[in-house]
Amino acid sequence: MSITRRHLxxxxxxxxxxxxxxxxxGAGRAWAAAPAPQARAKSIIQVWLWGGPSHLDTFDPKPATxxxxxxxxxxxxxxxxxxxxxxxLLPLLAKxxxxxxxxxxxxxxxxxxxxxxxxxxxxxxxxxRLVYPGMGAVVSLLxxxxxxxxxxxxxxxxxxxxxxxxxxxGFLGPRxxxxxxxxxxxxxxxxxQGVITPGISDQRQRDRRALLHQLDTxxxxxxxxxxxxxFAQGEDQAYxxxxxxxxxxxxxxxxxxxxxxxxxxxTFGQSCLAARRLVERGVPYITINFKGWDTHKQHFQAxxxxxxxxxxxxxxxxQDLSDRGLLDSTIVWCCGEFGRTPKVLWxxxxxxxxxxxxxxxxxxxxxxxxxxxxVVGASDGKGExxxxxxxxxxxxxxxxxxxxxxxxxxxxxxxxxxxxxxTPSGDERQGQGERLAEIM
Amino acid sequence: MRAFFIALxxxxxxxxxxxxxxxxxxxxxxxxxxxxxxxxDELVFARLKRLGLQPARPSSDAVFxxxxxxxxxxxxxxxxxxxxxxxxxxxxxxxxxVDRLLEREEFADYWAMKWGxxxxxxSEFPIxxxxxxxxxxxxxxxxxxxxxxxxxxxxxxxxxxxxxxxRVPQVNFYRTVQSREPTSIAANVALVxxxxxxxxxxxxxxxxxxxxxxQIGYKATGEWKEEIVFFDADKAASPAPTVPGSRVATLPDxxxxxxxxxxxxxxxxxxxxxxxxxxxxxxxxxxxxWFWLMGRGIVHEADDIRPDNPPxxxxxxxxxxxxxQASRFDLKQVYRLILNSSTYQLSSIPAxxxxxxxxxxxxxxxxxxxxxVLVDAVCQITGTTEQYSSAIxxxxxxxxxxxxxxxxxxxxxxxxxxxxxxxxxxxxxLLSERNSRPSAFQRLYLLNSSDIQRKLQQGPxxxxxxxxxxxxxxxxxxxxxxxxxxxxxxxxxKTAASYAQSVGGNRRQAGQDLAWALVNSAEFRFxx
Lengths: 440, 528
Hints:
The structure holds two protein chains of two kinds. Chain A contains twelve helices and 14 strands. By secondary structure, chain A is of the alpha/beta class. The longest helix of chain A is centred in the last third of the chain and has 25 residues, at 299-323. Chain B is 49% helix and 5% strand. Chain B contains 25 helices and nine strands. In chain B, the strands form four sheets. A three-stranded antiparallel beta sheet of chain B has the order 1-3-2. Chain B has a two-stranded antiparallel sheet with strand order 4-5. A two-stranded antiparallel ribbon of chain B has the order 6-9.
């Protein structure tokens, strides 16, 4: 086991004072000095805890801070990795800490949902001239159809709804926007928008398609017109999904009950299962938008309801990916746009809520070349600030790009024709641009 | 003289407005040959002749009525409107329809939507106007367009206003710039009113224009999300004055203006911008309108005007500029010039297809309906409504159930349909943000989504059409008029009737499948 910065901190070899100094040797090398990227990951599953989960109640517990900070959740549990302790409502994930690493020093300092979500998903600071694409859209560009990806399932799938706070594809435009499934994978069938329509038999699908062709008067008059040709091709592809094999990826009834059970019989759990099936088909980027973490009020009630779902779904996913030999080539990352106020807001009108907290929060990363069983960075004693090793969104995203084998200097096309690189540098970057060398 | 008179009579007798004509080749074209009717046409046709290009035939009445409704008011004609127009024998019915449409309330809705894209009217990221400023701003834009406020006044008010974002809606112009650096503001002004990308200018010219926007102040008030935009004389002018007490600034055409420290430099810029001596303003505006109506700018891309991107037809562009200036920046006058031309009214079926023919407007362009227009059309046909959502956690924005998509004020209000069909995110104000590439997922949505299925199966209007009295031919005719805005051909009637027979005379299923097929046809999806 390598020596992480956390160990160094513990043993007093590094002091907090040195943390904000310019690039250091060792744990975090300057980005330009990173080794030539070697593709280790083929797919990424992003578990997005939409609204911002509390870091104290999940991956960065602070039991010593007492009731004011912990509320009733003050008994964190050990994991199967010595020294790593996580929230008490995550017992299944506690058994799998060897598979993932925790970053306890994520930071961007933003406390508003839409700008924080933008920051965490694009690795860029809001403002400036451009609206950057989220990671999924970038992967769709660089690992999608123009990079040899084949298949009718689009390279960037969102289960099940878009967030609706910013445009995922940014300046890359709608061509790289995600396909949002809609529907609910917990229901039978999982009514993926456009792919599954209950009540229309396959025979009727074929009959009315024939009618559509017979009545294509404009198409006949404009034979060979490029736009209409593309329109016709779109139809062929659509029917491959409707009637062909491709659409079956969303048919979760093909899975054994026991497997479905292991992920949890709820929308999030079954979304995790659908994500695994998409990874098996080679889809490079899948986002699961898990709602309900913006807990200004009734925070602890929400945690008792949400965290067991997260625990079962995510633990089921990691175990299943691992059992199928897919974890080595699949990155799973899980966080929200920020953490939550470490000190519980007991006063009215919150009555036991937590607010937005951008100064420090946690992220879980697993697979695809990330080592498991490590903790990167640390927050201070109350989980209010970064104590060690600040990790900015760009550091995390850049590390994932590296594991996908993408060159950080890849130019991204944009309408203004500006020189935009995959990984931000100079003024456009928060922090020093350090890859997560400790866990790669 | 006599020969001319005869030619004119022949033209009138066979013109596209003549009723009762039999379509020559398809329901889409008139039987006549194309002919120049206006000065605009002469300029287009002269260019075509020089290039050896043949114009398409005139469009049929059915194509015209659908096209002009969609282009001018972003709304599909109802079956009654389509039928009434097609059977109207008046030779002047096309220009009469244009006049009527320009006065419809939907005209204001639709063009406020188009300008909302350019001006980036949006509550949330990255614009952050917030809902009540969005409502105020949208209302002002819509009212200006509805009242046909001269476009120079429209621009001048946006550029020079000061005050609260809630009470002086025009000031929101400066609040839609993501970065409030003078360079970014100048680039936004250049894009919106000069149709050009200042990012590509030499740095000194960018800096010179930025100087006019370097003294804009912003301050908060006690009211939540209220912000005052004002001329801040205390803010250091940039670049700094060389002679104390005086300021010299350079306009984009390199004219030099002298300003006293008390002068708001935005005034000087706006005065220059709308002056008839400055070609940028009128050119950008008419080229935009031409792009919106014709599907391609005379300068293409329509918001990328620069010396090394010449117009396809310089005489045509110059003519429109002059007319716009002579009309005192009357936008509706530009619409009339274009819509009443033979050029606009040509069929989309090319005499001979080529990139050159397309770039020189030898035929109408086929382009997908805007996402908003498409969803409104589907709702209109079926008698259903669409659900919208806003992620913004505050109660200012009430969305009534019969909300039309083209009338949505706020780019932050979304629906799955609008996302799928390429509605622009209003991030940049670039025209290219509106996606016009049809995707497989758009097809999937229309072909097979439960949303569309539900509308077709349960929509009261579509059910009424399917259950209408009369035989299957009447039902088919009703569906064609409602969905494709035309009568079915004899062949189509036969095909539909035999389909109805094949499903055992189950009129409900036959009607639904027919409606489904028409909604999924290229003819419905595209403006043509």
